[in-house]
Amino acid sequence: MTLNPFTPTSAEWDAFVVAQPRGHVLQLADWGALKGAFGWAHERVALREGDQIVAGAQLLFRPLPLRLGTMAYLAMGPYGEDRLWRAIHACARQHRAVFLKWEPGIYTPGETQPDPAALGFRLAPQTIQPPRTILIDIAGDDDAILGRMNQGTRRKIRQSLKNSVTYREATRNEVSRFTQMMTTTGARNAFGVHSAAYYERAYDLFVPHHAALILAEHEGEALAGVMVFAVGRQAWYLYGASSDSKRNLMASYGAQWTAIQWAKARGCTTYDLWGIPDEDEAALEAGFETRSDGLWGVYGFKRGWGGDVVRALGAWDYVYNPALYAAYKFALRLRRGAAE
Question: pLDDT tens digit string along 168-180?
Answer without folding.
Answer: 999 999 999 999 9
